[in-house]
């Protein structure tokens, strides 16, 4: 279908000719893959827990439709509009994340969700894109005006977020947000010694998490000694990839989804491996890599430090989340309950990732006769 004419001076017309249509198309492809994988993986899980066979399908169709709309709506905003949205949404997400410690629903030993009619929201999911943009603005303002303590404010917000996530606890989210923030500090030109010390502190924090949190210690021990512990999901996931081989068993022919508890969520990549094979898994990996690399390449001619830092944080957080999910499914790292963007089941995750990708598309739109703003 042809796009609007270049002479179209409407909001949608200007948006179409300035947005990165390759990245937009790649995101659309991931949403399409998400629909296919919900059809493949969720009915068996729903039946196993006594829900209607199509329960997860209907919900995810709605979530992904909302996510696609958010990507487009947010990508129309100006950089100033993106900043305002990130600050407002980030404040709400921060307050709701704190509220989970009081009124949150406890699932599998963690208090990360707030129950709403028909669904549960994980507010911390929205902290990832919003904090990345807010921290980028604060650091960039410090570069413009050294008297403005933006970097210190960003560090204070980071510490507050980490403390809230520690109380839930959500170590995986802490790692992603920490890694993104350290990367932003590095890109902003922070002294390399301080960046190195921050990396060492993060490694020390991971070691501390091993001793502080029993579930972290159990997962690490199962990763190191899979035959000595309950590594059922990981071993079943690896079996699924082995069954699929190069070309897969075919759509609907997978068997692992019938016995894998989180086949529609954390281990949906394993279902893809069994039914569609290594070729399709490699294609999915390639789509994620394309979005990350193209997002970074769009910044090569960028001069605005805010845009550089914000897009770096958004795209690297997106890529890191995808890596954690796929690597966990392949037993390359200890398991972590983190969704595969747009493909795993989950409303909070889909909407939060859509928010971040909409911000990325907005900030990388071409303005002023083809120059990147």
Structural description of this entry:
With 373 residues, the chain is mainly alpha-helical. It has one domain (11-363). 68% of the residues lie in helices and 3% in strands. It is built from 13 helices and three strands. A three-stranded antiparallel β-sheet has the order 1-2-3, covered by helices on one side. Strand 1 and strand 2 form a beta hairpin.
Strand content: under 5%
What does the main sheet amount to? Answer: 3 strands, antiparallel
Instruction: Give the % helix.
Output: 55-70%
**What count of domains describes the coordinates?**
1
Uncertain stretches of 5 or more adjacent residues: 369-373
Q: Could you give the distance between the termini?
A: 28 Å
Shape: globular
Global Rg = 21 Å
Number of helical regions: 13
Compute the average pLDDT: 87
Order of helices and strands: HHHHEEEHHHHHHHHH
Number of extended strands? 3
Q: What class, by secondary structure content?
A: mainly alpha
Q: Strand sequence of the main sheet, in spatial order?
A: 1-2-3
